Amino acid sequence: MARLEINAVSKAFGAARPADGLSLAVEPGEIVAVFGPSGSGKTVLLRMIAGMFEPDDGDILVGGRSVVGAPPERRGIGMAFQNFALFPHMTARDNIASGLRASGSEVASRVAAISKLLKIEHVLGHAPRELSNGQKQRTALARALIGNPDVLLLDDPLRNVDAKLRYEMRLELPNLLRRGTAAVLYVTQDYREAMAIADRLAVLIDGRFAQVATPADIYAQPASVAIARLFGDPTINLAEVSPVAEHGMLSAMVAGARMRLGAADGAASPGSCWLGVRPEDLAVSSASGDGAIPARILAITPMHEKAVLLLRLADGTEWLAALPPDAPQGAADDSVFVRFASDAAMLFDRATGLRIGPTHRLKAA
Amino acid sequence: MDMLELRGIDKVYRSRGNAPVHAVRALDMAVEKGEIVALLGSSGCGKTSTLRMIAGFEDVSAGSIALGGRRIHELPPARRKVAMAFEGYSLYPPLTVRENIAFALKSAQLPRAEVTRRVDEIARLVEIEDILDSYPRAISGGQQQRVSLARALVRDADLYLLDEPMGQLEPQLRAVLRGRIKSLLAERGMTAIFVTHDQTEASALADRIAVMEGGVLQQFASEKELKGRPANLFVASFIGEPPMNLLDAGVTRSDGGFRLSVGTDMAFDVNGAGLDSEAASALAGTPQVRIGIRPQKIAVGTGDVRVKVVSNQWLGDQSHVAGDCNGRMLIAVTPGRVAARPGDIVPFALEPRHLHIFGNDGTCIRHAEVS
Amino acid sequence: MEHSSLAGRIFRGVALTLILIFFMFPIVWIFLMSFQTNEQILRIPPRILFEPTFANYEALISGQLRTAAGNLQISFMRNLFNSVVLSSAAVLLALLLGVPAAYAFARFKFRLGESIAFTLLSFRFAPPLLVLLPLSLYYQELGLNDTYFGIVWVYQLIALPLILWIVRGYFEDISPDIEHAYRLAGHSWREAFTRIAVPLAGPGIAAAGLLSFIFCWNNFVFALILASADKQPVTVGALAFVTASGIQYGQIAAAIVLSVTPTLLLALYAQRYLVEGLSLGAVKG
């Protein structure tokens, strides 16, 4: 039982600052996903915790004890790598057993137990080159798990396995990881994977945690426009607007139509904003009327059991709408009208990118 | 009219000391003019070999390829009138992005103003206007992929071949580019074939999808057809995210139809009136079938199948609920949030009309009714 | 393209045969010469068919060189022994020093690291004659002249840079993550080096060792200047065959066959290790 704590950790490589005052605590048995665009510093953070290089500043504690300066083998850390990093000259069994310092019979029984759990008993005698990518990845996971580490670091472990297996592992992994009491840090570039697996998400942008919260909170209440753009496929639609407050309600012109944006937070108008609306919150119909943006359908592309419409609004902005497959969709080149409910609208400050509005509930790291 | 016609294509790779690899078997396929076709399959299914044979980088071991009425399988690649975007981008390193895209147009001796106009137009479409004067080594992988795509699409060709065209793109851009490229291809009536392992990409871009496995074309149809009327068990389990739930069921006669029982927990009555004679006789002749139901067709919170929740994952726009029913895993996808927690018992509703039924040899006996 | 015409295949076969004959001819010819007397060798035109004699080998092994001018003492077997001792010792020493150094250059960035590595390589650029004069003066001062140790040491100029640069490349090709994974599994860096890095670079180490062995074996000029008769390797010893009464072609051929055999056997033995999968497939890609 050990807590992982990262306190104001910074690291610079020349002009690049992949870690810029990172702080995060992961409880024993908790899974925190570190999610961010490529190059945001996710891998650097993991490697500092693992001891492959040391932070310039700040402290890393495992179970209350600082591990900065300790060699990797004394940190109580298990890690699974994106490229598997199996030992090519050893069998899967020896790969898994390499994580144990124990007597022969105990090694055998623990390898048997973990490989049963991960369903790789039948390939234990194989060399890594004889394993499929899925089996390699399970072997690497078994190697990381077998020593019951205090901290488990998973560096995008599902990146190199095929879609079907990735889906299976997405269901299986959270249960597997919660069997132990390790504090788990899970790095991924796939927001769905992050939301599916993690108890909490830490969104890493340019070496800083932009938001740390539960998956549902981050999706519904992203702290900034940059975070909003990272979650959701298709990505959130944006438009530049200047909302005005009237009778306690905000509204703004979007491509020539006046749209209601929910209750105003105080009397003042928020100034120039980004309006964000998720594609699944858009409704498309052929009926004109109040609060409907005129648009033309450019293309219809099915995606994730939905129909994704590429729309060109009257002012030339391109938006995407994701509709249920059984909803009437129209056809390419049709003229349509786009609506959204006022509570689906998110407003972000144009200058800072930060979210504003009545549901504003920013839980910064 | 068929723009491209593949007839009886075989591809066998022989290398000394190894058994010959039969990469493509007896492939027949016809692509209409203006159609966008995806070759979809996992790695090693023969899709890339097929694309490379059409492009002319591989010989056919047997069979013929005709493009626009011309037999092309004996022509060198340059004379086939095909344009290709490579998975590894293959940009010319000493040329700028603009020169890379313009290369084929200049070779075709188009007037300079025309070349500039077309390059600018395609660059705007794939959002690379700001890097036109950069060199390939100075731009990111995603940008290189867009340049490679632009270089292929800017050409005049009878057929456009795209190998994993969007694999490296940032997700934020991908959905928009899919829409734009689809609309460009449709507007100009361009015929295109692209290879992908990602079914989201295939269904987003393609008019028809050719599902390949083990070198054999499994089914060539629209996305809707593949999902609603999969030709066999492979297509049924391969297409759809998450994959179709599959269960073994015993078949017994019941009044006016058949009863399909899964263990002792689930039973489905299939009305004989809804079956064609072939399906009825197939069911009558087998004690055991595989039944499949799409996760999106399982309703959560109603119904009589009680499952123990294994995981409940909210992805922002949909919930994926995995439930255990006496050792059988069922996955349901619903648009809303579900309150269940792991360990809870919740009801799942599986309706007989949503069942696909497959024989033991994998062939389809009955499709689910179209909702 | 895998479908080539019959004519193409025949042409390829003929071309390959010609090239093979071109390269193999000298070796085959020398092998045949080693079983002939000087007179048979010098016959014009030469003949393929002859009565083989083992006289050349006997002379080499017994150390008695019979020429028209009389019997000469030669120490060919001693030379052969010297070659084996000197080359093996030099390669062994170079491996002990070079493999850890190559690992350091591959894995760590340190001040002057690249310069040191390049300086070591630059030893290979200078013609040996350039360093010989100062070297022999130093050796006289240090008392290293005409010692095995002295020659082994100077052979490091040949072996060490070769091993360092070849093995470094192999270490760089091993994903560092593999070693990181081993360390996180609770092993020290020494264990990671000996149990992971060295076995994985094994084929490279074998190749570099073999290559530097051949280079050492073939060295002539260092040993010529720095060693006296009883420390000389075969390359220098072969000079003895140029006698007052002419060049002993038969014995030279036999000497070549004997001196090539060890390296040839070594190369044949090591070949399967050299070819053996460098692509072991532990890392995706």
From TrEMBL, chain C:
<keyword id="KW-0812">Transmembrane</keyword>
<dbReference type="InterPro" id="IPR000515">
    <property type="entry name" value="MetI-like"/>
</dbReference>
<keyword id="KW-1133">Transmembrane helix</keyword>
<dbReference type="GO" id="GO:0055085">
    <property type="term" value="P:transmembrane transport"/>
</dbReference>
<keyword id="KW-1003">Cell membrane</keyword>
<feature type="domain" description="ABC transmembrane type-1">
    <location>
        <begin position="80"/>
        <end position="270"/>
    </location>
</feature>
<feature type="transmembrane region" description="Helical">
    <location>
        <begin position="249"/>
        <end position="270"/>
    </location>
</feature>
<feature type="transmembrane region" description="Helical">
    <location>
        <begin position="192"/>
        <end position="214"/>
    </location>
</feature>
<protein>
    <submittedName>
        <fullName>Carbohydrate ABC transporter membrane protein 2 (CUT1 family)</fullName>
    </submittedName>
</protein>
<feature type="transmembrane region" description="Helical">
    <location>
        <begin position="118"/>
        <end position="139"/>
    </location>
</feature>
<dbReference type="GO" id="GO:0005886">
    <property type="term" value="C:plasma membrane"/>
</dbReference>
<dbReference type="Pfam" id="PF00528">
    <property type="entry name" value="BPD_transp_1"/>
</dbReference>
<keyword id="KW-0813">Transport</keyword>
<dbReference type="InterPro" id="IPR050901">
    <property type="entry name" value="BP-dep_ABC_trans_perm"/>
</dbReference>
<feature type="transmembrane region" description="Helical">
    <location>
        <begin position="12"/>
        <end position="32"/>
    </location>
</feature>
<keyword id="KW-0472">Membrane</keyword>
<dbReference type="InterPro" id="IPR035906">
    <property type="entry name" value="MetI-like_sf"/>
</dbReference>
<feature type="transmembrane region" description="Helical">
    <location>
        <begin position="84"/>
        <end position="106"/>
    </location>
</feature>
<comment type="similarity">
    <text>Belongs to the binding-protein-dependent transport system permease family.</text>
</comment>
<feature type="transmembrane region" description="Helical">
    <location>
        <begin position="151"/>
        <end position="171"/>
    </location>
</feature>
